[in-house]
Amino acid sequence: MEAIKSKVNDAGKPQASTVQGLTKDLSNAVDEMMRTDRSSATVQSACELFLRFSSLISQEKLIDANFEAVKCEYVKRGNVFIKRIEKSRSIIAKCFRPFIRSNLKVLTHSYSKVVLESLLESKAHGCVFHVFVTESQPDNSGRRMAEKLRQSGIQTTLILDSAVGYIMESIDIVVFGAEGVMETGGIINKIGTLGIAICAKAMNKPVYVMAESIKFIKEYPLNQSDTPNKFKYRYSTLESKKDALDDEHPLTDYTPPQYLNLLITDLGIFTPAAVGDELIKLYT
Amino acid sequence: MGKKKGHNKPQPANSPIAPQAVPETPEPLDRFQKLNAIAEQLKSFSPKKGQATPPSTPEGSNSAPAAALPLATSTPKAQEKADKRPAKAKGKPEDLNDGDGKSRADIENERKAKKLEKQMKKEAATAKKKADAAAGNAEKPPKAPAKEAPANKGQKDAPKTPQQPSKPALKKHFASSDSSDSFNMTANGSKNVSFKEKSNLKVRFDIQPSNQYDLTERPAIRVSSYFVHATPHNVHPAFRRLAAKCEFKKLNGVNELLLAFHKTLIEFVEDYNPRPDLPFSESISLDLQPQLCCLSDNGVHPFPQAVGNLIRLFKKQIHELDNTKEICDLKTYLKEWIENSAYYNFDLAEKAIVEFTISKLKSMAHRRILTYSRCPIVEKIILTAAEQFNDLHVYIVDDPNNGSRGKTMLESLSEASIPCTYGHINSIGYLVHQASVVLLGCSAILNTGRVVALRGSSLLALSAQAVNIPVLVAAKTCTFVDKVRLDEHLSTALLREPIETIPEDLVTALVTDLRIVPPSSAPAVLKAKQLGYDN
C-alpha cells in the first residue's frame, strides 16, 4: 500500500518530460522498492498492476495534450487505483461474513491484515467465535495477530506451529491470507501454510484464502522448487548469498490449488481454477 | 493390395507405394473385365450341375459367403458404375451415400473373390503338374483346383473366422466331403456348393449392410483399407493420396496428419473449378462433401479432433466468402487462409510451446524428463532444451504393440547426444522414480480439460501423481475441442492409433502456445481461440 502511494508521489514530481521517461522513472521506483526487505511478492504484483492501470490512458489524451496534462492523468489514475485498493480489504471482509457462524473455531496462520480486518468485521456484527493462531516462527508474527485479536475481544488461543495436527480435529474452518496468488490458483504465503493446508485437506476441513486483487502474480509454479527465488527469500539474502541458497530457510512456501477450497478477493469469490482466468483479465 | 497386383496386368513392379498412387480410374475397369473373363471360364465347366441342389449350407442372407465368385460381382458392379455416372452429374451427397453403401458390400465380396481367385490360380499351377502326372485328362486340372481351393480355404478360414461368419459353416461341409478322399467326388460336391453360393450371392447384394454389422465384424483397429476400392469419381486424388499415406503409416500422429491435410486442402482449392450455376462458396462446399465422405466412410468414422477443427474452420471461411469477387481472388484468399493457419499452428505455435516449456525446465534442479512414445513437439522441446542445458536426461517409455514409435524418438535424440533411457510400458514403475518431470504430447484437449492422448499416456500421468512429480502436456490451441466426451473405442477416420483420455486432475499444466494454463482453464482458451478466428 505504502509502496504504491510513494509511486504516485513520484509521478507527481516533475522530473521526466516524456511518457517513456515517466514509465522509466516508475519502473525504477519499482526496482527500488523491490530492493527493500519487505514482502516482495506483493510489492511486485502491486507495482506491475499499478503501472498497467495508470498507463491505460486513452489515446486521445495522449496525443493532444502536453506532457503536464498527461502527468496529471497518471496521478489521477494512480489515486483511483489506491482508493480501489483501500476499499478492497473491506470488500473482502464483507464477502467473508457469511462464512462465519457463531461458535465456530477458526484456524489461521501468522499475521495477515486482511484476515484480521475480516475477523474484526465479523465480530463487530455480533458473531461469537474462537480463533486459533499459530505462532509462525521464525519471526513470531502469530503473536502480534493474537494480541490484536484479543484487543478487540475475540477469544484467541496461540498455538505452536507443530500443534496444528493435534488441533485440526476440533477446527471448523481454516483461513489464510496470501502474499501472492499464482496463475495456477495456488498461493504463496508464510512458510508453514502448505503443511496446515495438507492437514486440513486430510481431515476434510474447508480452507479459505483472502487476497486482494493486486496480489495476483503472473507466474505458473509447478512445485516448490519451481517458485522463483525472489518470492522465497528477502532481497538482501539473495544478494549476499547468491550461490549458497541451500542453507537459507525460505520465508514462504507455495500451496498448490488442490488444497484450497475458495479464494475470497475484492473481485469476488473464486475457486482456484477460476483464478487463472481472472488474472488474465486483470493483466490485459 | 498385393493380391490385386497379382491379378492385374503387369504394373510398374518397383513402385513401393500402393496402387492408390496410380490414378484410380483405369483399374476398376481392368478388374471388371478380368473378373468377367474368369466368370465365363467357370461357367463353362459344368453348366448342368449348376441346377442340382447341393446339401444346404446354413447361410443367412446377410452374411458374406466364403466363395464370393466373380460372376455375381459383375452385376452389382455394373449397377454401381451406372449409379455413379448420374450421381456425378447431380453431385448430391445423398446419391453418393447410397452408392458407397452398396460398394461396401462390393468391397467385401470382391476381396473374397480375389482371394479365392488367387488361390485357385496357385492351385491351378500346382495341380496342373499333379494332374499331368496322374491322369493327363483335360478336365481334371480344372477340377483339381476346385477341390484343393476349398480345402485350403477351409484351413485358411480358421484364422479369418471373425470376418466371415459363414465360413465355418462351409468349412464343415468341406471337411465332411474331404473325408471321402476320392478326387472326383469331392470336386463335384464342392463345385455344387460353389454354384449354390453363386446363386445365393445374387440375393445377398440387394441388402445393404447395417452399421451394426460394421461394429461387430470389424475390430476397433482395422487392418484393411476402406478408401480405395470404390472411390467415387469426384474425389480429388490429393485426398486419396492422403488416405493412402495414413494407411501405410507414413503419417504418424495428429501433427503430421494435420500438416498433410493442410497441403491437401491447398491442392484441392488450387485445382478446383467451380460449378457454373452456383456461387463459388456454395459450390465449393458442395464439392468438399464427397471428399470428406470418402475419407471418413460417410461419417461412420469420425475425424480426429484436431482435423475436425480444421475442417470446421475451413467450412466457416468458405461460408463467409464474398461471392462477388473474382474466382481466382477467392481461391487465393482461401489458399492464403490455409497457409496462414498452417504457419500459426505449426511454426509459431511450436516455437511458443518450446519456449514456455524451457522456461519451466530452467528452474528445475535435475532435468530428467519422462515421455511416452513419440510426439514431434516433445521431441522439438527436448532437442532445443539440450542446447541450453547440460544435465538433461530423457526416459522414453514405449508401447511395443503400437509401432514402437519411441524408437525413432530414441534415435533422433541420441544423434543429438542426449543421454536417453528406453523402456516398455511395463518398466514404468521403475522409470517414474528416476524422472523429475513428465512431458506428454496430446492429440486433443476436451472442454473439461481432459487430455486425449495415445493409449498408455494415462499410466504415465497416474504414476507421476503417485510419486508427486509434475505432468506437463504440450497442447497446441488448434487441438482444443468443444466436446465433453469422446467415444474412445471407435477408431477415427484417418488415424488408426488407439486413443484414451487422461483425467484433468492428473495433469499439472497444459503448455499451450498462448500461455501455460491449468487444465480447468480449457474453456477460456477455447473462447480466446474462437474469438481469434472470428477476427
Q: What labels describe this entry?
A:
heterodimer; A: alpha/beta; Rossmann fold; 7-stranded mixed β-sheet; 10 strands; B: 535 residues; 3-stranded antiparallel β-sheet; 18 helices; 56% helix; cytoplasm (chain B); translation initiation factor activity (chain B); initiation factor (chain B); protein biosynthesis (chain B)
Written overview of the protein:
The complex is a heterodimer of chains A (284) and B (535). Chain A is an alpha/beta fold. In chain A, 49% of the residues lie in helices and 15% in strands. Chain A contains twelve helices and ten strands. Chain A has helices at 2-12, 19-34, 40-55, 59-64, 67-96, 113-124, 141-151, 164-167, 193-202, 229-232, 235-240, 272-283, and strands at 104-109, 129-134, 155-159, 173-177, 180-181, 187-190, 207-210, 252-255, 262-265, 268-270. In chain A, the strands form two sheets. Chain A has a seven-stranded mixed β-sheet, with helices on both faces. Chain A has a three-stranded antiparallel β-sheet with strand order 5-6-8. In chain A, strand 9 and strand 10 (268-270) form a beta hairpin. The model of chain A has no long low-confidence stretch (mean pLDDT 82). Among the domains of chain B are: 237-344, no CATH class; 350-532, Translation initiation factor eif-2b, domain 2 (Rossmann fold, 3-Layer(aba) Sandwich). Chain B has helices at residues 2-7, 26-45, 70-90, 93-134, 140-160, 167-178, 183-204, 211-217, 237-247, 253-271, 280-296, 305-319, 327-362, 376-388, 406-415, 428-434, 457-466, 522-534, and strands at residues 368-372, 393-398, 420-424, 437-441, 444-445, 451-454, 471-474, 499-502, 509-511, 516-517. Chain B is globular, with a radius of gyration of 28 Å. The model of chain B is unreliable at 1-26, 47-102 and 136-230 (pLDDT under 50). At the A-B interface, helix 12 of A face strand 10 of B.
